[in-house]
Design brief:
The chain is an alpha+beta fold and 392 residues long. It is built from 14 helices and 8 strands. Helix content is 49%, strand content 11%. Strand 7 and strand 8 form a beta hairpin. InterPro entries: DUF4272.
Length: 392
């Protein structure tokens, strides 16, 4: 074996570099200017070996890192094992990772080299993935392999203190909200895991402003109307002229995101994009609820009432009226729904990974769009609309 990867949940990447330098302090260590690559050279009388450490950070390329984590999550989630508790904790650990250290050596790892690699993992509380498909903890013990085997009875999930944001910061209100959600899940027969974290509590939550909600709601409604129209009749020019008139009517030209503007201006939009944008009705429905236009968010087993959703904006007729008639729900109500949808989405993801029907009749497409909207409302990770995460 001459390669492996260390995965870490840590905010200060320089700590990883420092651990590498310390572990190989008796050899020649060269660190790149951006601290994304470290080369270790071991010069002996008649031979020379080299080990390269390439660091990948989530904040450098969020999309690629997310896809990597999804792949790893799926890889370990599909393994049949008697160690289900360990497996679930490993899956949660994977969702918290934000640094990957790819390690490649010019020669096979000897005992000393591998011990140094494990010393790095221990220092930064990382996990080590081997080419065989084995995942090791920081002490070198097998967490899980493709045969479902494990050498540990339990696994301690490590999330950097620096990375604990509002989504997972424990709080009294957050814990109470989680308990209420779990009680409802039990009543509805929806699977759940008790160690799925709390979301941001009342004490720390900062909900989007009324201005933000109203503008986003208008943009989502118009983009969904346009997408649905061209998907149904293919009349792109006519539908664009129609929607541009409504955009002007509501003074909404500046309300759209970069991706939405690209879609509106695309002379030949992809059908996949049409369908995805048409799903924005579900996000719009959540915002209508948050603005008091919809009385309650029903159980997410079917799509929203599209005609009612459109009528809310159409009957207002202009921005000022739509804004004036809106009554923003309380922070507590919005957080209640955000916590519940987070756990619904976990059940959907778990079912999808394990090729099972989603329990309780949940519609996974409705769930994920609601999750997107609610995470935006509670400022999860402070993501803008185009990059809202729906982690589970």
């Amino acid at each position: 074996m001459n390669q492996c990867t260390i995965y870490v949940s840590i905010q200060q990447c320089e700590k990883v570099v420092a651990a590498i330098v310390e572990a190989f302090r008796d050899q020649l260590v060269e660190v790149s200017a951006d601290e994304r690559a470290v080369t270790v050279t071991d010069k002996k009388w008649f031979s020379k070996s080299k080990i390269t450490f390439n660091l990948m950070r989530e904040d450098d390329d969020q999309e690629d890192f997310l896809q990597m984590k999804k792949g790893m999550y799926g890889f370990f989630a599909q393994i049949e094992t008697a160690h289900e508790k360990v497996q679930q904790k490993l899956l949660y650990q994977i969702t918290a990772l934000n640094v990957a250290v790819g390690i490649v050596a010019s020669k096979e790892f000897d005992q000393k080299t591998f011990a140094a690699i494990m010393a790095i993992a221990e220092e930064v509380h990382g996990i080590v993935f081997l080419p065989t498909g084995d995942m090791l903890d920081k002490q070198g013990r097998l967490i899980l392999n493709t045969a479902g085997e494990s050498e540990v009875d339990d696994f301690l999930v490590t999330v950097s203190v620096d990375l604990i944001d509002g989504h997972i910061q424990p709080s009294q209100s957050g814990e109470a909200r989680k308990e209420r959600s779990i009680k409802l899940l039990q009543e509805q027969g929806i699977p759940y895991i008790p160690h799925l974290p709390v979301i941001v509590g009342d004490e720390d939550a900062v909900i989007r402003s009324k201005d933000e909600m109203v503008q986003r709601a208008i943009a989502l409604c118009l983009i969904a109307v346009y997408a649905g129209g061209i998907a149904e009749n293919g009349q792109i020019k006519e539908e664009r002229e129609f929607i541009e008139g409504i955009i002007e009517q509501f003074g909404a030209a500046e309300f759209f995101t970069e991706k939405e503007r690209d879609f509106l201006n695309d002379p030949q939009p992809d059908r996949t994009d049409m369908i995805q944008m048409a799903w924005m009705y579900e996000c719009y429905w959540v915002l209508l609820w948050a603005l008091g236009y919809v009385e309650e968010l029903h159980f997410p087993d079917e799509i929203c009432d599209v005609n009612t959703a459109i009528d809310a904006l159409r009957s207002a007729g202009d921005y000022d009226t739509f804004y004036g008639n809106a009554v923003v729900r309380s922070k507590q109500e919005i957080l209640d729904q955000a916590d519940l949808i987070y756990r619904y989405d976990w059940a959907c993801v778990d079912a999808r990974i394990n090729n099972r029907t989603v329990a309780g009749g949940l519609n996974d497409e409705v769930v994920v769009e609601r999750h997107r909207a609610l995470n935006w409302l509670v400022r999860y990770m402070e993501d803008d609309w185009d990059h809202v995460s729906t982690d589970t």
